[in-house]
Amino acid sequence: MKRLVTALLLALCAGVGPAGAIAKLTSTRMSCQAIQAAFVQAGAAIVGHQSTRVPGLPIYDRYVRNRLFCSGEEVTETKFVPALDTPYCPLYRCVPIEFEDFNRR
């Protein structure tokens, strides 16, 4: 019986990947719809693309499905990345809350 339990545990652990692994996408190889669908599945991902200002410079950033994937001191802002089918695919990125904005009257 012990062998059976051990074998089952090993089989279950074999499919487990590293904790906290995050998806990595290259936006210019995917349609905007496919990129956004990846966030429905993963929640957060590192998205890479080439800079439009400096040719050949890779740009990487972490984007999220919604604010639930940000820390408590962050909110989301919309950023646009180039996709295979459009130069402006909207994604969400976590940014710090600007508390000074709340003090202005």
Task: Draw up the topology in text.
Layout: H1 2-14, E1 23-26, H2 32-42, E2 44-50, E3 58-64, E4 74-81, E5 89-96, H3 100-103
Parallel strand pairs: 1-2
Antiparallel strand pairs: 2-3, 4-5
Describe the structure.
This protein is an alpha+beta fold. It has one domain (22-103). The protein has helices at 2-14, 32-42, 100-103; strands at residues 23-26, 44-50, 58-64, 74-81, 89-96. The strands form two sheets. Strands 1-2-3 form a three-stranded mixed beta sheet. It is globular, with a radius of gyration of 19 Å. It starts with a helix and ends with a helix. Mean pLDDT is 82; it is low at 1-19.
Query: C-alpha Rg, in Å?
Result: 19 Å
Pick out the low-confidence regions.
Answer: 1-19
- The fraction of residues in strands falls at 25-35%
Q: How do the strands of the widest beta sheet line up side by side? A: 1-2-3
From the helix content, strand content and strand pairing, which structural class follows? Answer: alpha+beta
Overall residue-averaged pLDDT value = 82
Largest sheet: 3 strands, mixed
The number of strands is 5
Q: In angstroms, what separates the terminal alpha carbons?
A: 71 Å
Q: What is the count of helical runs?
A: 3
- Principal-axes geometry comes out as globular
The count of domains is 1
Percent in helix: 25-40%
> Could you state the order of secondary-structure elements as H and E?
HEHEEEEH
Question: What are the key terms here?
Answer:
5 strands; globular; two-stranded antiparallel sheet; 105 residues; single chain; alpha+beta; 3-stranded mixed β-sheet; disordered N terminus
